[in-house]
Amino acid sequence: MLLILILSAVAGQQYPLLFTTLQAWFHDASVDVATVTQLTWIGALFSLKFLWAPLLDNVRLPLLHRLLGKRRSWLLLCEVGIIIGLAGMAFHDPNSSRLLLILYALVTAFSAATHDIALDAYRIELSSAPDEQTALASTYIIGYRLGMLVGGAGALIIGAQFGWSAAYFVMALITAVGLLAVLLSKPPHETITTDELLPKQVERLKDKPSFYRALAFLYSALIQPLVEFFCRYKGLGVLLLAMICVYRLSDQTMGSLAMPLYQNAGFSAAQIGSVSKVFGVLMTLLGGIVGSLLTSRYGVFRLLVVGTLLASVTNLMYILVALSGTEATMHYIAPGGALGSLAAGVIAMLIPLADLLHALGVTPLMLLATTIAADNLASGIAGTVLVGFFASLTSRHYTATQAALFSSLMTLPGKLLGGFIGLYVDLYGYPISFFMSTLIGLPALLLAIAVYIVARPIQQRSQQEDDD
After folding, report:
1. What is the pTM of this model?
2. Three-class SS of residue 429?
3. What sequence ranges are listed for the domain Major facilitator superfamily (MFS) profile (predicted)?
4. Helix and strand tally (H, E) in the chain?
5. d(C-alpha 92, C-alpha 96), whole Å
C-alpha cells in the first residue's frame, strides 16, 4: 500500500503543475485570462490517452520488460519522461520562450498521462477482491491528492520565494522518488494478454504481410476491448459511457476558473497555497476516506448519485467568493433567454447573503476556506466513488485499455469546455460562469440516477462472470 501511495503521489503531483500552478505562473507573467484558461488544453492529453493505451497492453519494452515486467517497466519509462519534461519547463519562461515551455509541458503531460494508464492497470491487477480494490482505490485517491498538495501548494510556495523555474526543477527532483518506488514494488498478478484473445479470423492474419498484421493488432488492441465491453453490457453500455462523459463535467469546468478567480479576487500566492492547496487537499483526503467508507456501506451506485449532486451544488458557493472579492470578480452581465434570467435571479438572491456574511465579520479568506472545504470534500467523495466504479467496469483481459478509455471519457469534455470558459468569463463575468458550471451538472445527476435504477443488477452480474 505504501508504494501505491508513492506512485499515486507521483501521478497527482503532475496535475497541478500542468494546470493551476502553470496558470499561476502565466498570470504572474501578465498573460491574459483567456490564454491562461486555454492552458487547460494541455491537459487534453490526459483525456486522449485511450488512443495509445493499447500499447501498454500489447508492447513489451526491450530489456525493461525482462527486468520489471509489463506494468512496472512502463511506469519507470514514464517517470523518466516526466522528469525530463519538468526540468525542461524549469529553464524557460512564459514571455521569452513560451513555445518551448509549452512543448516541454506537452512532454510532461504525455508522460504523465501514460503513467496514469500504467498505474491504473497495475492497481487493478494487484487484486481481484472487491474489498481490496476499495482499499486500493482509497489509497490511490489519498496518494494522488498528497501529490497534488506537493505540485500545488509546494510549487506555489517555492515559486513565490525562489521563482517558478526553481519550483519546477524541485518538482522534477521530487518525481525521482517514484523511480525507487517502481523498483521496490511487487509485480501484479499475471493476466491474459491480448494476443491470447485474438479471434480465429484475426489469428489467421498473423502469417500475412506486415500490413495485415498491423490490422490484426489494431483490431485486437482498439476494437476488441470495446466489443468485449458492449458484449457484457449491450445497450446499457451506452448509458454507462454517457454518464462517465458528464459525471465530472461540472467541477472540471469550475476548476478552470478557480485559479483566475483567486488571483483576480486579490488573494496572494501564499494565501492560495495555504487555503486552496494545503487545506483544500486535506479536505479532499477526508472526502476520499468518507467516500470509501460510504461506498463500502451503501455500494458504489448510490454514491454515484450523491457524488455528482454534491460536486455540482458546491459550485454555487464560488459565486459568494466572487461577490465578496474585487470589482473584477463582482461584475457580471446576465445573458439573454430563460437561463440568463434564472442565473440573474439566483445571483440576486445570493448578493444579500454575501452582504450579511461581510456584516458578520466573515472575511473573504474565511469564505474562500469554507467554499474550498465544501467543494473539495464533495470532490473527494465523487472521485473515490468513480475510481471504484471504473474498477468494477474493467475487464481483466483489457485492463489498461478500458481503464484509460473510461478515464479519458470522464476528462475530455471538461478539458474541452474548460478551455473556452475564460471567454465566457470575459463576456458575462465570474458569477454567471459559476452558476452555469453548476447547471452543467444536471445531466450527470439524471444519468447517475438512471444507472442506479437500470444498470446496477446487470453490471454486478457481468462483473461476476468476468471474475469467473
Report:
1. 0.72
2. strand
3. 1-456
4. 28, 0
5. 8
